Amino acid sequence: MKTFSCPHCQQTVFFENNRCEGCGQAIGYSPQTGEMQLVGSGWQACTHAATELAGLAACNWLQPEGADQGLCLSCQHTAVVPDLGDPEQLRLWMKLESAKRRLFHTLLSWGLPLDEPGTPGALTFEFKADMAGEQPVMTGHLHGRITLNIAEADDAVREAVRAQMGEPYRTLTGHLRHEVGHHYWDRLVANGPHLAGFRALFGDEQSDYGQSLARHHEQGPPAGWTAHWVSAYASAHPWEDWAETWAHWLHIVDAMDTAAHWGLALGQGSGSAYGHTTPSPPTPALSLASRLPAGLPDDPQAFRQVLIDAWLPLSQCLNSLGRSLGHGDAYPFVLSETVLDKLCFVHGVAARSLASAP
Fold first, then answer.
1. What pLDDT does residue 293 have?
2. Can you list the positions of beta strands (E) in 113-249?
3. Are the CB atoms for 353 and 111 separated by under 8 Å?
4. Taking a C-beta distance cutoff of 8 angstroms, is the pair 27, 37 a contact?
5. CA–CA distance, 114 with 239 (Å, rounded to integer)
6. How many helices (DSSP H) and strands (DSSP E) are in the chain?
7. 333 CB-contact burial (10 Å; exposed 0-12 / middle 13-18 / buried 19+)
8. Which residues does the chain have with pLDDT short of 50?
């Protein structure tokens, strides 16, 4: 994610800003241009911008003035919201929508298909709260519809679940990236030219999904799982392996894009700590300055070298910085050779989708 400039005074602003701290102008992000725009200069605020909590607007995305739909491109894809008259549910919903806008920014950058809201199979979100006397809301995906329990937006609740599940990482962004991975398996892999390659790497998705999940929850991951999967949950079933790997691919390309836009350059040698070596060391500044997606190769093997040359050193740097600040590792994962193969496969599927986009 790059930084932006206020279109009025050119001061640096960020993706979440709805007002420039320098000149005070009302601004917002335009997904049509990929830049910040002035509200009222051909651009109108999302309807949800009028919904505020503690002075913060619920949405800072814009659309062209005169648009028929009052909601921005991101908000149009939310079909169900919790009770926004409840301040706590409003707070949690706003956090979910903020994470979703970051997700959509990356999906749009890669030209991944979204479809018109309301059309069959279009990517749709339901953000629900648990209700007394009813079954708890379960996070999941079905035919393009992603359901998320708003309790996941409560940091204390999410951390308690993370500890209970023994997970090294649990974030809203991670949830959304994982669930949207299921959607893009349906759109880009199922019954298409990538299916055979998927099965060769991830396994046969026709194995019983319910039985596989039950076995995973009862027995946990197999011994030595880190050699084959990016997370313990990825070992449960090929669909979950794909979704977890897809989420990590989004983590990686977004983090590298951010590093590139900040001009970050790292020295060589860090990648060897993961058991990988670099045959011909590239110029560090260039390996991180390949802004995405245009700067990345669509060839899976070339992308693998980018991972080794750029991502592994960057992730180690992020982990070291996190420890220095008392937060622990920012990316607490080890990427084995098999996991790298899977990441390259995901990248190839996404990059070819971008190349074929109209």
1. 61
2. 124-128, 140-142, 145-149
3. yes
4. yes
5. 20
6. 10, 12
7. middle
8. 269-275, 277-291
Cβ-based neighbours of 25, under 8 Å, separated by 6 or more: 6, 8, 9, 19, 38, 39
pLDDT digits (tens, 9 = 90+) for 98-130: 999 999 999 998 889 888 888 888 999 999 999
Peptide bond into 293 cis (omega under 30): yes
- Identity of the amino acid at 183: H
Helix, coil or strand: residue 53: strand
For residue 26, what are the β-bridge partners? 19
Let me know: does 63 contact 69? Beta carbons within 8 Å.
yes
* CA proximity to 53, closest of 97, 90, 15: 90
Cβ-defined contacts of 185-191 (< 8 Å, 24+): 185/239, 185/242, 185/243, 185/246, 186/121, 186/143, 186/144, 187/113, 187/121, 188/349, 188/350, 188/353, 189/242, 189/349
* Contact between residue 43 and residue 18 where contact means Cβ atoms under 8 Å apart: no
pTM above 0.70, yes or no: yes
SS3 27: strand
Question: Cα 193 vs. chain centroid, distance in angstroms?
Answer: 25
pLDDT at residue 266, rounded to an integer: 72
Dihedral pair phi/psi, residue 38, rounded to 5°: -80, 130
Q: What is the rounded end-to-end Cα distance, in angstroms, of the chain?
A: 24
CB neighbour list of residue 101: distance below 8 Å, 6 or more residues apart: 15, 29, 59, 60, 61, 74
How many of the other CB atoms lie within 10 Å of CB of 144? 21
* Amino acid type, 200: A
Domain spans, the chain? 1-69, 74-170, 189-356
Between the alpha carbon of residue 33 and those of residues 36, 58, 105, 224, the distances in Å are 8, 21, 11, 46
Instruction: Write down the pLDDT at residue 279.
Output: 42
CA–CA distance, 57 with 140 (Å, rounded to integer): 28
